[in-house]
């Protein structure tokens, strides 16, 4: 009695350790969760180019048209180059170049084209910064907000003027990636179902292909037997003086099909022998 009582108490713990329910799949299908791409990456934002590398001898934006620096000493000129100043000056030059691609006039900084150029320049500079310092959460939030704002502006521009929208994408090297209308969670269960369906379709295709090859290998013998059978039936019906059900045209068609297939197989066999001999 004591032994039975001990077994009763041990039974629940055994069931918890050993799995005795559901179906254990024998399919060798391995699912790996796809790597999540951060929202600030160019793959998500749609930027086709990164922050360019400017020449170190290029002057800062505010001193490009200075006549005094043209005749100044080399050491004095170096003080106003990008190489000897902060990174911010290089970003300002990049902003100016991006605006000049799409601006309407020389003093245009308020149109939607100029704003998109400024936002694109800032986004690419922050993306370059995040590659070096990926743990900067404040910069990450600013970058995410900028990408969302630019995407909203592009959506409006696409709705208002599609030709100008395409022009902006071409000039700024962008790909418009709108937000999906329906969000679909990536789960292991759903992915395994799709992988299992693909696996079953592949098995079906391979087996059908094997069966087709098997039938093709038997096709020549089948036509030969068919030809002999038709000739025998026609001969017997003629000798027995009964209505002939097999016409000579049918026999000629089968004989022609048999000869063509035989020649085709012989040509294929010769073509396989030529590489081996060479």
From TrEMBL:
UniProt source species: Anopheles melas
One term of GO molecular function: structural constituent of ribosome
Location(s) in or outside the cell: Mitochondrion
PANTHER family linked: 28S RIBOSOMAL PROTEIN S15, MITOCHONDRIAL (PTHR46685), SMALL RIBOSOMAL SUBUNIT PROTEIN US15M (PTHR46685:SF1)
One BP annotation, GO: mitochondrial translation
InterPro entries reported in the protein's UniProt record: Ribosomal_uS15 (IPR000589), Ribosomal_uS15_bac-type (IPR005290), uS15_NS1_RNA-bd_sf (IPR009068), uS15_ribosomal (IPR052137)
Lineage of the organism: Eukaryota, Metazoa, Ecdysozoa, Arthropoda, Hexapoda
Keyword line: Coiled coil, Mitochondrion, Ribonucleoprotein, Ribosomal protein, Transit peptide
Coiled coil: 244-271
SUPFAM superfamilies attached to this UniProt entry: S15/NS1 RNA-binding domain (SSF47060)
GO cellular component: mitochondrial small ribosomal subunit
Record carries keyword Ribonucleoprotein: yes
Protein name: Small ribosomal subunit protein uS15m
Family under the similarity heading: Belongs to the universal ribosomal protein uS15 family.
Record keyword NAD present: no
Chief location category: mitochondrion
């Amino acid at each position: 009695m004591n032994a039975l009582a001990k077994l009763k108490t041990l039974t629940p713990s055994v069931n918890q350790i050993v799995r005795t329910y559901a179906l254990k799949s024998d399919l060798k299908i391995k699912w790996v969760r796809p790597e999540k791409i951060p929202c600030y990456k160019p793959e998500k934002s749609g930027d086709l180019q990164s922050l360019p590398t400017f020449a170190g001898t290029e002057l800062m934006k505010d001193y490009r048209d200075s006549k005094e620096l043209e005749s100044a000493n080399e050491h004095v000129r170096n003080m106003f180059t990008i190489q000897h100043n902060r990174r911010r000056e290089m970003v300002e030059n990049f902003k100016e170049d991006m605006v000049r691609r799409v601006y309407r006039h020389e003093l245009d900084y308020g149109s939607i084209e100029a704003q998109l150029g400024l936002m694109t320049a800032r986004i690419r500079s922050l993306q370059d910064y995040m590659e070096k310092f990926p743990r900067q959460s404040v910069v990450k939030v600013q970058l995410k907000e900028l990408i969302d704002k630019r995407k909203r502006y592009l959506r409006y521009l696409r709705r208002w003027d599609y030709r100008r929208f395409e022009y902006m994408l071409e000039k700024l090297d962008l790909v418009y990636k709108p937000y999906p209308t329906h969000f679909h969670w990536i789960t292991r269960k759903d992915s395994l179902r799709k992988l299992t369906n693909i696996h079953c379709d592949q098995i079906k295709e391979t087996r059908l292909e094997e069966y087709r090859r098997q039938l093709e290998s038997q096709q020549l013998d089948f036509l030969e037997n068919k030809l002999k059978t038709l000739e025998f039936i026609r001969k017997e019906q003629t000798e027995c003086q009964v209505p002939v059900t097999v016409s000579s045209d049918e026999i000629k068609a089968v004989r022609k099909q048999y000869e063509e297939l035989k020649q085709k197989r012989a040509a294929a066999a010769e073509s396989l022998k030529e590489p081996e001999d060479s």
